[in-house]
Design brief:
about 190 residues, four-stranded antiparallel β-sheet, alpha+beta, 7 helices
Length: about 190
Amino acid sequence: MTDDDRVRWDAALSLSGLAYVMSQWLMQAGVQSRPGRVPGRGPLVDSASPDMLPAVIAACQAQFLVTHYQPRARGVDVAGAEWSTLACAHGFARYPLAVSLQTAGLRAGLEVRMWDGVRRSPFPGQGRAVRLRNGVPEKHLGAHLNRKQITREFAGCNRAAIDALSAAYQITIIDPRGSTIWKTLDLWALAHM
């Protein structure tokens, strides 16, 4: 991470501050890297889901700090392995925004997993498989992230920001069809900016 980026992330003292810096990174607006990622590597862009990145940016601007997102996709990698992903977004929000996001997702027919930072997740285990390779789960979302995991993902961020994330609601939204998650996120964000 560049020194300038490290200063920006460390200056974010709250969930709102982190969401703002994340939106700047997603837009490639002066922030070139983020904690927990390869330095200089930009955000995920998918030509088959052109509405994905704008919806994730809007969600961050509306205070839903999206830390992971991906489109629904299928393919074969260079090693010949078949892979597939479910469209999903995972992140952090404060009450009551978290509850309104949960409501929007459920009304759209999406799978929503949400819990606050105090209580244990109602979804035990590894969470829901959102990426498979040759039918074997490779990535799971929807399980509770503890403080240690949050600290690792946001290494280099201010302790106050880690405290805010640890106390926030964690939300995972999954769209197995891949057709409504980005519109749902975008409409929710428009209503909360």
